[in-house]
Design goal:
With about 120 residues, the protein is mostly helical. The protein contains six helices and no strands. It is flat, with a radius of gyration of 17 Å.
């Protein structure tokens, strides 16, 4: 039982952290567009940070898969959609519309149901 809980926590951490990757990728690409150049050190720095976060964010997921079922854990990665929307609104000042929030609410509800089913409730 403790392995299952640890696995769930690892996947949640992976999603929370990994959702920062597209934020850095977007920041880097916006910087490149703003500079008007084909290459920009600052843009490349943000893109590389995004790629690093993406790759390193998979490590907790990989570890978690060793200890629990894929059918339980992988749907939890859907929470990264919620984190990405929140990060986009906060860090990139993007407008997130009500339909996106409704979709995120459905996703979170589905993840909750999967989590409840994992413990046989």
């Amino acid at each position: 039982m403790i392995e299952r809980i640890l696995s769930i926590v690892l996947v949640l951490v992976s999603g929370f952290y990994g959702a920062l990757a597209p934020i850095y990728l977007k920041k880097g690409l916006k910087e490149l567009e703003r500079s008007g150049k084909l290459f920009s050190v600052k843009a490349c720095q943000n893109v590389l940070i995004g790629v690093f976060i993406f790759g390193s964010g998979l490590l907790p997921l990989i570890i978690a898969l060793k200890f629990s079922d894929l059918s339980l854990l992988y749907p939890l990665t859907g929470l990264s959609y919620a984190w990405t929307a929140i990060y986009s609104a906060y860090f990139l000042k993007e407008k997130v519309n009500k339909y996106t929030w409704a979709g995120i609410a459905f996703t979170v509800s589905g993840v909750f149901l999967i989590g409840v089913s994992a413990f046989g409730l």
